[in-house]
């Protein structure tokens, strides 16, 4: 199942054992409406007639099929498999006996394949969600060398100056103080797998955070023995871009948009006023207009409306 093309070795062995002119498998997915055709030897015209599961059919029983053909259908877990063998030189009873013996094994293989496809689908949805949230992960060894990472983290390292891949695949934060902090945390986790996770802010504009946690997924450790996994979460846009998006989305003035973004980052009215050179009274006046335009009933609502709405996908 893991070969490309799938099941090539099995089909070649079946062709040889049956001394067949051609062998073929057709996979039909009830869930996805897809069809995969695999074959070895002379191409076969696969039967289109309805077939009872597990019963071996002779070509004479199937509309338009050749006399030397034997076919069987196996179903389960949303997948249907039809296997056919064209071996006119071998007694049909021998081929039918072999196909019947293969049925339970192929049924198990179908169940495994269906489970793999379900997990592949779930992983695809999870990966898309992580991409939209600009979330990724990097596994590192005790020297902060990259052992493994996902596609989102790879893109992050290519585009962000806050964190980069250095010589010998070492992970380098741009700020020396953060580099020392990260190195110390990873070293501590190498000595104690029960070490508590630690959060570090890499950048305020755009906002980028990492969470460093002990490695507990052995499959990601690899031969280099990763000791920690670094979860990345960052904003793709600068504050200036976010201000423009807020103006477009909620019809805010530029001054209101700047204040709204600061409030959404968790700053208090007084802190946001100081950041933008406003008096507290002016900031309060702006905040009332912001809440009215965004439909927020307070700062918690404002955070939810801005950070979990469509702006989060921009």
TrEMBL record:
Family annotation (InterPro entries): Sig_transdc_resp-reg_C-effctor (IPR016032), Tscrpt_reg_LuxR_C (IPR000792), WH-like_DNA-bd_sf (IPR036388)
Gene3D superfamilies: Winged helix-like DNA-binding domain superfamily/Winged helix DNA-binding domain (1.10.10.10)
HTH luxR-type domain span: 249-306
Stated name of the protein: Helix-turn-helix transcriptional regulator
Source organism of the structure: Qipengyuania mesophila
């Amino acid at each position: 199942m893991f070969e490309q093309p799938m099941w090539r070795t099995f089909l070649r062995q079946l062709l040889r054992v049956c001394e067949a002119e051609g062998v073929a498998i057709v996979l039909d997915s009830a869930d996805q409406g897809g069809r995969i055709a695999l074959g070895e030897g002379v191409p076969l015209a696969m039967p289109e007639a309805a077939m009872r599961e597990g019963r071996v059919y002779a070509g004479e029983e199937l509309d338009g099929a050749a006399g030397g053909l034997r076919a069987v259908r196996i179903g389960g877990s949303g997948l249907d498999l039809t296997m056919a063998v064209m071996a006119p030189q071998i007694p049909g009873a021998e081929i039918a006996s072999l196909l019947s013996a293969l049925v339970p094994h192929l049924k198990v293989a179908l169940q495994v394949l269906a489970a793999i496809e379900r997990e592949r689908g779930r992983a695809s949805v999870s990966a898309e969600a992580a991409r939209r949230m600009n979330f990724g992960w990097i596994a590192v060894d005790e020297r902060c060398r990259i052992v493994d990472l996902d596609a989102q983290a790879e893109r992050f390292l290519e585009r962000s100056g806050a964190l980069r891949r250095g010589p010998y695949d070492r992970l380098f934060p741009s700020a020396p103080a953060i580099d020392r902090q990260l190195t110390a945390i990873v070293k501590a986790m190498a000595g104690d797998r029960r070490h508590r996770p630690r959060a570090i802010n890499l950048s305020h504009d755009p906002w980028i955070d990492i969470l460093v946690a002990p490695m507990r997924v052995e499959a990601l450790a690899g031969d280099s023995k990763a000791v920690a996994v670094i979860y990345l979460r960052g904003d793709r846009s600068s504050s200036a871009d976010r201000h423009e998006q807020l103006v477009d989305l909620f019809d805010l003035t530029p001054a209101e948009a700047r204040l709204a973004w600061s409030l959404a980052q968790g700053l208090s009215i007084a802190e946001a006023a100081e950041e933008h050179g406003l008096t507290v009274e002016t900031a309060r006046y702006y905040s009332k207009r912001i809440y009215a335009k965004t439909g927020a009933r307070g700062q918690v609502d404002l955070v939810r409306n801005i950070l979990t709405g469509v702006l989060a996908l921009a």
